[in-house]
Task: structure prediction
Amino acid sequence: MALIGDRERERTARVLREHFERGRLSVEELAERLELALRARRKSDVRHALSGLPAVWRDQAAEARSGLDSVKQAAGRIALLVLVWSLWWAVTLVLLIGFVTTVVMNGASLTNAALFAALWIGCTLLARHVARQHRPAGR
Result:
């Protein structure tokens, strides 16, 4: 016969409240099981109060998996953002080199300046649109 102390009774009561919060117990069942748990003197009394309920570690494992999934999703979004903005920098550099080359070869013209500015603004707006659609949650 293994006797238990207040700490074990309180832990059992906390576990029962968690099961109630998750919808596994009605108010009446919670009251009955809490009464059993708080009057428990032996481990068998505590086991009786928790009988028919899933182990708490299963809930904790499911929560951990959910947390890992959200971290993976956030990492994927961040990788996509880095890719989008890296491509934007590359396109900007290519446009700048193309503009400078055109100016050196043909001289400055309003048409060339407007064309390269329009291309750059279009690429910037596209990158911004994609980045806003895939930004991490909470922003």
